[in-house]
Hints:
By secondary structure, the chain is α+β, with helices and mostly antiparallel strands. It has helices at 4-13, 33-38, 46-50, 52-55, 101-120, 137-143, 190-194, 212-218, 228-231, 240-243, 257-260, 269-273, 277-284, 294-307, 313-317, 334-347; strands at residues 18-23, 67-74, 91-92, 126-129, 148-149, 155-156, 164-171, 200-202, 205-206, 234-236. A hairpin with a 2-residue loop joins strand 8 (200-202) and strand 9.
Amino acid sequence: MLTSASIKNQALTLGFDVCGVAPATALPELSFLPEWLARGFAGDMIYLHKSAHARADIRHFLPSARSVIVAGAIYNTEGPGPATRDPGSVQVARYARGQDYHLVLAERLEQLASWMREQQGASLETAIFVDKHHVQERVYAQHAGVGWIGKNSCVINPELGSFMFLCGIATSLALDVDAPATDQCGACTLCIDSCPTGAIVDAHVLDATKCISYLTIEIDGAIPESQRPQIGDHAYGCDICQDVCPWNLAPVLTADPAWTATPRHGASAGELWLRTDDELHQFVKGSAMTHLSLAGLRRNLATVIGNSGDRALTAVLDRPGRGVRNAAHSAHTPVVEDAVAWAKGRLK
Ligand code: SF4
Ligand code: SF4
């Protein structure tokens, strides 16, 4: 007989660090999305507008859904705060340093769903979700007791912190649900005060168009010039509002080989810039960073070099991909060339 407890045990066996169950009902926080979109905070993420209706209720994702199983996996492999790095090195958000979580988590969820059907019978309906699916997983995580949604919009588990992937399974099975997590941010405003771009415009309200994660990952075109200095040394994403969070001061580190695979953080921006497209592709291969085009990565690297203050790197920008002069090379897109021109001007 399948129960919430047996599913949670199996989830932990499969490599998840926490698991809870929420009801597949019209939870109040699900209705915040339209207002957030109407305020323009999604910027160019048109897919969020297009999928807003689907995201309004998990029963649009799985019509027979009665329960939502939410699983979390810690991805953090380093201590608190930005690690000591060489000058001119790049920051890569912690979640993107290991293997591509979409693939790893989907495989684990498929194993969990398959095990559930073995226990309950083939008629059991399940649908897995991992980030890219049209599910507001943070709302269900809060109602599954996995963690509360902090003022930085991340889900925080009191024992594990917030460096945690969230994913889950909607199912037709009516399971015992967990008590929702309680908000424990209190009077703290560290994340709001520490955000270098002022992207957290109010508690729990993120203006994504100001967020370094959005600027370095979500947009294909040029990063607005006024925002380039704020990118600093972030080549892919940003962890500042999580690094400063008191709930991450003594973070649980994972030994999961999926997240400890290849170090991508702390590489030299200049050295990365000089790689050919093939070499740059090898650098990101297998990670979530492949969701950014090589041109996007070069745009970010040029921006980081421009912010480095190291004038010697000006010459490096003139040697894209070790002198490759192929027009199809990613260093020669208008967006990258614009970032290079900006970087050279800033380094003068
Ligand atoms: S990820 Fe960085 S830029 Fe975005 S809200 Fe957090 S601190 Fe601000
Ligand atoms: S830094 Fe403070 S306010 Fe922000 S999420 Fe953490 S506890 Fe909440």
